[in-house]
Amino acid sequence: MAGKAVPNATRRSERSHRAILDAALELVAEVGYPKLTIEAIAARAGVGKQTIYRWWPSKAAVLLDAFVALGERAAQEAEGPGSEAPYAFPDTGDLEADLKFVLRATVDELLSPTYDLPYRALAAEGIVNPEIAAEFVSRVMEPSVQLYVERLRAAQQAGQVAADLDPRVAVELVTGPVTARWLLRTLPLTHAYADAVVEMALRGLSPR
Amino acid sequence: MAGKAVPNATRRSERSHRAILDAALELVAEVGYPKLTIEAIAARAGVGKQTIYRWWPSKAAVLLDAFVALGERAAQEAEGPGSEAPYAFPDTGDLEADLKFVLRATVDELLSPTYDLPYRALAAEGIVNPEIAAEFVSRVMEPSVQLYVERLRAAQQAGQVAADLDPRVAVELVTGPVTARWLLRTLPLTHAYADAVVEMALRGLSPR
């Protein structure tokens, strides 16, 4: 690791890496996931196919890294460099308001063109490809699920959520309906829907 | 339309139709959806490719019809011929027990090899293909959602569900978490999970 050659090579390598991830995101938006190819990503990024195969086994793996990098960049822009958590979960003391704030932001993210196409492509691939599903869940889904779990635990300590509930299942009661509506496109995904889900999840279906 | 030729041709045509649908289901289980081809379906069904293309525009369209036919056949076997509804939704007067019964049956169906692979393939295709999504929703999802809606309306009339709730959103609070866990494979899908979701949806997260 001596001399100038290594830092230059490292810089070149970083530049290629970033160009490949950018090309994957651009192309999935332009041609759709089924027509996305390693060849097209290589051509757009100005690298050889072998450079991509040296780092990634499949187009799904490239897209997953590209999507994670996109989220990290968005978080850094929002919170400044060096921030640890991908997203901060608000704790104003008002659980209903905090859950609505986050679930509305999730709806906005799912509907934004930047996220929608790669996110949808990865979810679709994950449905038929268990390895990609496992990576998608551990790198994309779980970090935000954990933020919900922590917020619900705080609410349990504050007496705002029943103490005997499993917070992991409680998170899914709030996020599951939005995820399912987004993935299956059953009905429009709106802020009003996010609010209705949060209110219903907190109060329950049974009359009080 | 005279003579014996027409009934024979119709019978032959019905036989080919059924053979194509069966072949699509067999092959998706054997090779997976990404590798499923119209050529392979034709070869397995003993028909020409053009016969398939005369009836269906794509492999997704064949698989959707095959999946709907599978559900109809299962319903006929379960309920006898001539039954109208694809599935009956129990109404014992105990909403919690009825929801758990149906949601456990849904979990069993989602995990059974007969349904899991074609269902998953269609859901994945629908995520990136809005036309297939619309057909999948209207022919596969909505009929069962409507049975839930009717059951929840009866519960509202019986005073077991708050009268001011939108039953459509209420259904999704119960089914959304199971759908999301199945599609994204976040955690295991079990009867215990189905029960926990029903209990939490009825009682809500807030302490009483």
From TrEMBL, chains A, B:
Entries under InterPro entries matching the protein: Homeodomain-like_sf, HTH-type_TetR-like_transc_reg, HTH_TetR, Tet_transcr_reg_TetR-rel_C_sf, TetR_C
Coiled coil (UniProt feature): none
Keyword annotations: DNA-binding, Transcription, Transcription regulation
A GO MF term: transcription cis-regulatory region binding
Domain HTH tetR-type positions: 14-74
Cross-referenced SUPFAM superfamilies: Homeodomain-like, Tetracyclin repressor-like, C-terminal domain
DNA-binding segment(s): 37-56
Record-given protein name: TetR/AcrR family transcriptional regulator
Organism of this sequence: Streptomyces botrytidirepellens
